[in-house]
Amino acid sequence: MEQSHFKFNRQERSGIFFLLLLVVFLQGVYFYVQARPFDSSPKFKPDTFAQIRLDSLKNTKPKDTLNLFPFNPNYITDHKGYALGLSTKELDRLFSFRKEGKFVNSAKAFQEVTQVSDSLLDIISPYFKFPDWAKEQGSRKTSFQTNAKKEPLVLNDLNTATMEDLMKIYGIGATLSKRIVKFRDRLGGFLVNEQLYDVYGLKPEVVQRTLLRYQVLHPPKVEKININTASVGELAKLAYIDFDLAQKIVSRREVKGTYVSLDELKDIASFPADKIGRIKLYLTL
């Protein structure tokens, strides 16, 4: 008897049943998804307060203004000078004046030195703050010449001042007085008053107070070093020249020949050009 091809056993019928059930389920899911409308609304709730703050910040334009506070114009920096409206030439005039160890003690003196316009002076001069002892005097008087007391102070030699003497100056304690004496010994004695500004950690206003009482009255004799024959070791002995800079000075001489002017040193990388005046005191050609 021929067997029928459409006859299934129990296991095969169960498989067909579950396959049909799966097809029906998937069809139902498909029609459900197609029939459901797409919800494009955001899934989070916006922070209304934060959004208002953000919008206000976007609408706020930065102001091209400079918040001014009282300052001493003797110590104005390049950055602040540009921000105040001073030109490069005006700043250079002030810096050159200050390198001579002089100070402006009034708005009028500041204008005479820098040659700023009247309009700019009217804007910035109300913020000038000078030391209490600085009075309206000539523009080319140094700090120790500007003394509010009628009785002049007695000047003593800076090169003979002891640590105890220096500690009597307001702003100089045990550490700074020791540092001043140590720097003086390394120099072999101060040659000019301006070298006091080179003491690490000594503020300019403290230097000014010190120069009211102590100045270089008897500078030591210095045997200058010939920069065209000096070795690296000899140059490195100077307080203003370290070993690395001494090597650069000698290397430049070996490559380009002897120095014609001491000002050529300023062309060397890392050379402290602002101290060229003091360094010249110890060098010769």
Could you walk me through the main structural features you see in this protein, from its secondary elements to its overall organization?
By secondary structure, the chain is an all-alpha fold. The protein contains twelve helices and four strands. The model is unreliable at about 60-65 and about 135-150 (pLDDT under 50).
The number of helical segments is: 12
Unreliable runs: 60-65, 135-151
Average predicted local confidence, pLDDT: 77
Estimated share of beta-strand residues? under 5%
> What level of helicity do the residues show?
40-55%
Strand order of the largest sheet: 1-2
Topology as a string of helices (H) and strands (E): HHHHHHEHHHEEHHHE
Could you tell me the number of beta strands?
Answer: 4
User: What is the distance, rounded to the nearest whole angstrom, between the alpha carbons of the first and last residues?
Assistant: 132 Å
Based on CA inertia axes, which overall geometry fits?
elongated
- Major sheet description: 2 strands, parallel
Radius of gyration based on Cα positions? 40 Å
Structural class: mainly alpha
